[in-house]
Design goal:
alpha/beta; Rossmann fold; five-stranded parallel β-sheet; two-stranded antiparallel sheet; 9 helices; about 55% helix; about 15% strand
């Protein structure tokens, strides 16, 4: 079974693409959701985060995402600390999940696929591409975020050109090429590659 990464900048449409793959019968591991779950359920992780960011880091058993985001996206050292804490646990969870899958290929959806080093455990990487102006517009509508907040988050992600060069396949979510047709075509390619490998 092929292990495929799915990534893209904030507002590019990764989740939309992931849902299309799921509709085609492909299982998807959502790294950000799993990371949040780990930060809520793992007592060692919870204790470390509270020690680093204070009691306000959690509201009951729930991570205070806005409070944490405000801190880490304005302090590179704290962002690095947080990433070093959570990435290894999320990568391990993904690798365990991949082992249990039975489909021709399975997908790990992750915003920081290359930044975290998670791509090293994968066969292929798929990038979702969209113009920055369109991405900003989408995030503003989706989250109600301000322009400075979005630009700050973008600055903490790999730049578009570098990310695209690292990807094996690109999907263009720019309102000019039909996204569904692109995903269906890529699904066929990945199934064919998986079949060839199985027969080799």
């Amino acid at each position: 079974m092929l292990r495929v990464g799915l990534t893209g900048g904030i507002g590019s449409g990764k989740t939309t693409v992931a849902h299309i793959f799921e509709s085609l019968g492909i299982p998807v591991f959502y790294a950000d959701q799993v990371a949040k779950q780990i930060m809520a359920d793992n007592p060692v992780m919870v204790a470390a985060i509270k020690e680093k960011f204070g009691a306000l880091a959690y509201s009951g058993n729930t991570l205070n995402k806005e409070y944490i985001a405000d801190i880490i996206f304005s302090d590179p050292q704290k962002l690095t600390w947080m990433n070093q804490l959570i990435h290894p646990a999320t990568i391990k969870a993904a690798n365990d999940w991949f082992v249990a899958q039975k489909s021709p290929y399975a997908i790990k959806e992750a915003a920081l696929l290359f930044e975290s080093g998670a791509n090293r455990d994968l066969d292929y990487a798929v990038g979702v591409v969209a113009p920055v102006s369109l991405r900003i517009e989408r995030v503003m509508k989706r989250d109600g975020s301000t322009l400075p907040a979005i630009k700050q988050r973008m600055a903490n992600q790999l730049d578009e050109e570098s990310r695209d060069k690292k990807c094996d396949f690109l999907l263009y979510n720019n309102d000019t090429k039909p996204l569904l047709a692109q995903v269906i075509e890529l699904d066929k390619k990945l199934r064919a590659i998986s079949k060839e490998r199985a027969q080799a």
